[in-house]
Amino acid sequence: MNETLDIITARHSYRGSYKAQSVPREHLTAIMQAGLDAPSGCNKQTTSLIAIDEPQLLSELLSRIDPPICQTAPAIICVLTQRIFAYRDKCYAVQDYSAAIQNMLLAIKSLGYESCWYEGHITDDDNIGAKLAERLGVPEGYELVCVLPVGIAADKISAPRKKSFTERAWFNGFGNR
To answer: Where do the structural domains in the chain lie, given as residue ranges?
Structure first.
């Protein structure tokens, strides 16, 4: 249909191994810029990012994540958020970083890499996100909420089964065809 829609359709969460091939800084910069270009509630811009591509630091950070994830990724992007209140004392931090992550996932795919949105056990009760943030020197007031690996897939990529359009989308009312 068009290149953007093709990338959206082709993007899937990748949890396999990565090839031992570094990600150029210009690609990491472009990916992070795509994230920062995402919409932000009331333009509060609550999302910040840290790319890690230095092998020793990357290994140290990944060793702090249990259960292990993306152990062979040549780079990761850590997503930070700030709880800044906006319109009518509402905070749009979750929406802001979600939009940024989706933009980055699409940019990652468009540049020929794979990734996965790892948030659940980064923000669980064991405070892995806080441990990573401390090691990275993240100041108070920021929370590390997500890790995105970036790299070239070493394993076969398989798409998950998705429900059909007609099971999840309608026109002019729920269930209308």
So the answer is: 23-157
Strand order in the sheet with 143-150: 47-52, 75-81, 143-150
Q: Which residues contact 112 (CB under 8 A, 6 or more apart)?
A: 152
pLDDT value at 177 more than 90? no
Positive/negative CA dihedral, 137, 139, 145, 146: negative
Angle between helices 93-110 and 25-36 (to 10 degrees): 140
CATH number given to 23-157:
3.40.109.10
pLDDT value at 40 more than 90: yes
What does the alpha-carbon distance between residue 144 and residue 25 come to, in Å, rounded to a whole number? 21
Angle at the Cα of 127 (from 64 to 73), degrees rounded to 5?
35
DSSP letters, 110-167, are HTT-BB--B-TTTSSTT-HHHHHHHHTTPPTT-EEEEEEEEB-BSS---PPP---HHH
Supply the pTM of this predicted model: 0.95
**Cα-Cα-Cα-Cα dihedral of 99, 143, 84, 96, to 10°?**
0
Alpha carbon of 40 to those of 33, 107, 154: distances in Å? 14, 18, 34
In DSSP terms, which residues pair with 75 in a beta bridge? 150
